[in-house]
Design a protein that fits this description.
heterodimer; A: alpha/beta; 5-stranded antiparallel sheet; 7 helices; about 30% strand; elongated; B: about 350 residues; alpha+beta; two-stranded antiparallel sheet; 10 helices; about 65% helix
């Protein structure tokens, strides 16, 4: 039987050194033909050496070990190494892949080695269902994300661009083609119309109360009726109170 | 089409206004009987109630329909409403009191009724309007109080959460893995990493209780943290701390700077293949102490996750320094993120809180 080859990918040098040293001791026949410090490096090495096994760290700069495994699916066996990643652990529990938790102990590494040796002896090419398993893993990870809404407003302030967390915004006010962003202590102008903005905001948190006004419901201090009978909204830390136009007053109906 | 609750709110305010009007009109009737002994109280009472309620109804209707946006329109609405209200209310009142109408319209009597009602009506309307202002001010004070309590509660929660966040398992296990490796390859480096980890853990665990510390002490923890990452990330992490020695003893709240530095490392530099640089700079501008944490890393996208650390820091600055403490985030040039903390600088006081 020909030599068994492996690559190691981890962004932390010491951890690559350590794994390499332990593998040398516990599996002297294994040839480590390359070490990678990020996802792209790992891919290149796998293409170059066609190893039997890839030891991949999950969190790596560029792209993750899971992405690497997805891209090479079928080409070699993958052992994931992670410090702590409960989701990945759950996801792999039913898969044919192996994973090791950091810090890597000799006992755990020996188990993995035995498993790998047995698998390689039984079938020199890795199982083809790998791609499918990874697809499931990625799907599990994707679904936790949910829809993507705007989280930061980028606004020019002096000669810098300020980043305003959208949850600190009190309300947005239309100003011609632009929009004024009011927070508790600042006022900024952004080059985006209120209409464009409305589409990118989380509708659970931001309510349109007027053609030119969108308020952050989490920052409402009080909804009240003015002497003239119109509904007004007072926002935390602000004295200016935007008014609710009649067509939107149903939003504040009592439960 | 307004819903029930709005009608309810409206009805309540109408009833309140009417009952205040009744009280005022009673006072006016008393006043008129007192200054002119010819007048009977009952008649005055009935007439003034009619005029008052009609004027009140007219002005509320006027405000509801016209919704005046400025003071001049508001004044016009009030005067016109009082005029119409008196014109309707006075004849009705006279009829109800059993007085012939010609008495009212004969001579200048109606004019004097009108003058009295506009005079008193203005006073009453002014009372209503300013009452609205006062109640909204009271609400503001109440709200401040609730806010203060919430902030105190949050501070306790934040401390707990920070404690959990600091000893993040990922950080701890990766660091321990590194130390394990260094025990074989570079014993001295392994020892120094262990010392840094111990210092980091000890200070992080004890400082979350809310005592004040100094800028210098905070920098020591941050150095320990960055040194740990320096070993882990190698050349991918470069850092510089630029704070004048004169500021090292400046009292500071613990755990304000640290989460921002950790953000810079974990979300700024770690995801970048090339890594980058962190620069921490502190300086005093007039009466403000300004601390900047800059990284050349990934920066923020418009839909990047809002970091919990950033929210916490902002809330804590607000609870500690009010409007004078703030956190500003900016895009760093040429890349990455710049976090700026500003707090009041009062060197003479020794303790700023």
């Amino acid at each position: 039987m020909s030599q068994i080859k492996a690559i190691i990918a981890d962004d932390e040098e010491q951890l690559r050194l350590y794994l390499k040293a332990r593998l040398n001791v516990l599996w002297p026949d294994l040839v480590i033909c390359g070490e990678a410090a990020n996802g792209q490096n790992a891919l290149d090495l796998i293409d170059e050496y066609q190893p039997d096994v890839a030891f991949l760290d999950i969190r790596m700069p560029g792209f993750s070990g899971i992405k690497v495994a997805e891209k090479i699916a079928g080409k070699c066996r993958v052992v994931f190494i992670s410090a702590y990643d409960q989701y990945a652990l759950q996801a792999f529990e039913n898969g044919a892949l192996d994973y090791i938790l950091k810090p890597v102990t000799d006992e755990r590494l020996e188990k993995t080695i035995k498993r790998l040796q047995k698998q390689i002896a039984a079938a020199p090419t890795p199982p083809s269902e790998l791609a499918k398993i990874l697809e499931n893993v990625l799907a599990t990870l994707e679904t936790r994300k949910g829809p993507v809404y705007l989280n930061w407003i980028k606004a020019q302030h002096g000669d810098g661009v300020r980043l305003i967390p959208v949850n600190t915004v009190r309300y947005f006010k239309a100003e011609d083609k632009y929009t004024i962003v009011m927070t508790g202590d600042s006022e900024s102008l952004i080059r985006k119309s209120i209409k464009e903005l409305a589409d990118t905001l989380d509708p659970q948190q931001f309510w349109q109360i007027h053609r030119g006004t969108i308020v952050n419901v989490n920052q409402i201090a009080k909804v009240y009726r003015s002497f003239s009978g119109g509904l007004m909204i007072r926002l935390k830390d602000l004295h200016e109170a935007p008014s609710v136009s009649r067509s939107y007053s149903h939003l504040f109906k009592q439960m | 089409m307004e819903d029930i609750s709005l009608k309810h709110m409206g009805l309540r305010s109408v009833l309140t206004h009417f009952s205040y009007t009744v009280v005022f009109c009673t006072i006016i009737a008393l006043f008129l009987t007192l200054i002119d002994s010819d007048k009977a109280f009952l008649e005055c009472f009935i007439i003034s109630q009619f005029i008052g309620l009609c004027a009140c109804a007219c002005s509320m209707l006027g405000f509801h329909v016209i919704r005046p946006q400025n003071n001049i329109i508001m004044l016009i609405v009030i005067i016109v409403a009082l005029f119409i209200g008196t014109s309707i209310g006075a004849p009705l009142g006279f009829l109800a009191a059993g007085i012939d109408l010609p008495v009212l319209f004969g001579g200048k009597f109606f004019l004097s009724v009108l003058t009295i009602s506009i005079l008193f009506g203005s006073v009453i309307t002014y009372f209503f309007l300013s009452r609205g202002v006062i109640s909204s001010k009271e609400a503001l004070i109440q709200e401040e109080r609730v806010k203060r309590l919430n902030i105190e509660k949050k501070a306790v929660e934040t401390n707990l959460r920070l404690l959990q966040a600091q000893i993040e398992p990922h950080f701890l296990f990766n660091t321990l893995s590194n130390i394990l490796s260094l025990l074989n390859t570079d014993l001295e480096k392994g020892k120094s990493m262990l010392v840094d980890l111990m210092q980091y853990l000890r200070t992080t665990l004890s400082k979350t209780r809310g005592d004040t510390t100094t800028v210098g002490e905070e920098m020591e923890i941050i150095k320990a943290y960055l040194n740990i990452y320096k070993i882990r990330m190698g050349d991918r992490l470069r850092y510089r701390i630029d704070i004048p020695d004169s500021l090292r003893d400046f009292p500071f709240q613990p755990m304000l700077i640290q989460p921002l530095v950790e953000n810079a490392v974990r979300h700024g530099l770690e995801p970048e293949v090339e890594g980058g640089e962190i620069l921490i700079r502190g300086a005093v501008y007039e009466d403000t102490f300004r601390l900047e944490i800059m990284d050349t890393g990934a920066g923020l996208y418009e839909n990047s996750n809002p970091g919990m650390g950033i929210d916490n820091t902002r809330e804590r600055l607000k609870s500690l320094y009010g409007d004078k403490g703030r956190l500003i985030l900016e895009e760093n040039q040429p890349s990455g993120l710049k976090a700026i903390i500003e707090v009041p600088y009062e060197p003479d006081k020794g303790d700023h809180r």
